[in-house]
Amino acid sequence: MGWRTKSDKAKKGHRPSLKDWACDGFHKTFPEYTAQIQSMENLGYQHFTTKGEVYHSCKDTIPARLDARCISPQQFHENYEAKWIPSVITNIPQGHDVPNPPPPRQSFEEKKIQDSNDDNNGSPHRWRALDRWTLDSLQNDDELRERAMKCGEDDDEHTIRMKLKHFMRYLNNNIDDSPLYIFDSSFDEDRLAKTLLDDYKVPSYFNEDLFRLVGEKRRPPYRWFLVGPERSGTCVHIDPLATSAWNTLIVGKKRWVLFPPHLSKSTVKGKALIKKGEDDEAVHYFTTILPRIKEAAVSSGGTGRYENFECYEFTQYEGETVYIPNGWWHAVLNLTHTVGVTQNFCSQRNFDDVWIKTRSGRKKMAYKWLLQLKEKYPHLAKRARKLNKRDGFVMKYDPKEVEKRDREEKARKQRHKESKEKSEFTPNAKRSKLDRVVSP
User: How many domains does one find in the chain?
Assistant: First the structure.
């Protein structure tokens, strides 16, 4: 079967009720939208408030713009992550977030040659992805192109896959309004997928990944390889379990919108503003629904659900890494074909929120995590227990609780047994209909 047959099958599984994926004709109107976005000054940064004012600025705004050559991980943790400030960091895949090793003693001529090589090749920590994840390289990778990648889910949340070689043909030839989007997290399932792990490095700003303590098999999905055709994207959401996220773009341009945590889900999704028969995919959201949300915010005068309303829009360019703090609503639209990688993480800065979500959302994993924290990060284990005590939260898989439930279950069964025996041997016990018929 060719790529068209494969993609049609994937689309039918992903959205079976949608018969015509190009019914709104976005492949015709999208170039005008992208041209408008890309013509904006100041890299397309916009800050919108309920007063109807839009501020264009690259400085002193959200997201903050940082350079990996100038800011250390400690500075980032203290001044941005700890304050939950979304950020765009440049020069990470070029390897500048990791200090170069001290050079060996060299002669003047050797140092001159070394400096020349560094200028040509960049940092020794430069990501291989910059070379291996171009559209042409992916399409011509004899091994990786045979690997089936996740590009959707059916109504029962079963994974829908396409081989990369078929998806790349689909990417270059589709006219769908909201195309399929490779969002693959199965890096450890086979040899081919594992090669992707060698192509990038977790940025030094985000390498404190506390979920790693429970192991790869137990932890929830947290890293994704992304290949998105233009017009594809993700709808408004916050990341699961109160995790934060980083997203590095290798190829193309993405348009982002961010909403602060205090705004409600119904407000940022604009559900009340979607008309009957309209779709709410990313392309529809950015071009149609988001403008309506802004208009409604202005009309409200900043009252009701739009009190203290604000949103932040910006364009992400190749080589940039976006940091999204936990709790921030965000949506993404691919302005061009894109390739990138993203990971969710828990650090000491967002630990409290992550623990509160995990202890109830992943009960068994939370207890295993607590045991590891007690050994590796005792101050965080103490903090977790303090939060549990504050909230009156009882951990289901704590051995004491398991033993308590076992005792209660045994007692319940014993009471039931005794009650049954008592009813059978009580002289005045009510007889069954059969007993009344056959008894003298």
Answer: 2
Mean pLDDT on 267-273: 95
Supply 429's token pair.
Answer: 């016990």
Crossing angle of helices 351-361/378-391, nearest 10°? 60
Q: What distance lies between CA 189 and its chain's CA centroid? A: 20
At 146-179, the pLDDT tens digits run 999 999 999 999 999 999 999 999 999 999 999 9
Q: Give yes or no for a contact between 44 and 315, defined as CB atoms under 8 angstroms apart.
A: yes
* Token pair belonging to 65: 């713009």
What is the value of pTM for the model shown?
0.87
Residues 213 and 89 occupy one common structural domain:
yes
- What number of other Cβ atoms are within 10 A of residue 278's Cβ? 12
User: CB–CB of 34/230 below 8 Å?
Assistant: yes
Q: How many residues does the chain have?
A: 440
Residue 379: domain span? 351-391
DSSP assignment letter at 80: I
Cα torsion for 343, 346, 349, 351, to the nearest 10°?
Answer: 160
In a domain, 400, yes or no: no
- 390 touches 352 (CB < 8 A): no
> Quick one: DSSP state of residue 285?
I
Considering only the C-alpha atoms of the chain, give the largest distance between any 2 of them, rounded to a whole number of Å: 119
CB distance 283 to 178 below 8 Å: yes
Tens digit of each residue's pLDDT (9 = 90 or more) over 131-150? 999 999 999 999 899 999 99
